[in-house]
Amino acid sequence: MGRIKGEWMEIRLPDNLIGAPMSIISRVLPLPPKMISKLLQTKGCLLQGPNLRLHLFPRENRDFPSDWMELNILYEDEFTLIVNKPAGIEVHPSEKGQRKTLAHAVAAYYEMSGQDVRIRHVHRIDKDTTGPVLYAKNEFAHYQYDKAMREKTIERIYVALAEGYVEGNKGKIDKPIGQDRHHSTRRRVSDTGDPAVTHFEVMERLADHSLVRLRLETGRTHQIRVHLSSINHPLAGDGMYGGSRGVISRQALHGERLIWNHPWTGEKQQVTAPLPDDFNQALNKLRGH
Q: So what does this thing catalyse (predicted)?
């Protein structure tokens, strides 16, 4: 990777590329042609002898007002921010004028740390689900992460507390998911829905509950909640999909790990988010039975 100096990345070209036209140099960069063309048009791509300078980190207007909240940051570099989202807060406003979402808290963090960066979340998790949320800190990173989401190379691994005794140690739920006609925010298994695949393994069996680890192959709204409910093992605490609130007052679903490739170097990276207190308390209650 090159050196980052303010808004610019400086790359020292290998000997065989010094003096080569930009059309040749661009082939070895991880930038999409559209972005190279934009950089060339805006003088954001400068060749100075053996050095190539790219204007990848322009100052931007933050696009959300700031609402201060203590954030648990799992990872940060010039391209990426990963925040461990607590329960009870939405990633992004769901209606006009809504405040105190994670987007507003990230805006406050950028402001406090002197970063003039737009808020670009790459994926969402439900309001009452906890775990890592990935943010791209510039246009290039956003392009790379969107592409990775489409190509399913960003891995999201969850831990859930399901009701009942889940049969078998491993399995796959492959059932399409669509909107529930009778309830605007609910989803359901439907033949005409979008393809949805969830892989699971049982980690521990507890008092009439199973602790399962899940890997999403697709990312449909409420996918894990709908899929587990469809095999008669709703999440503990998930009243919307048939779970009871006996051991926990929200759906017991936590994003445990996020695995991704660095947008510039392609190097594999990962973060792990610890289980939140209420989830641990539910487990301890069940282990004590």
A: a uridine in RNA = a pseudouridine in RNA
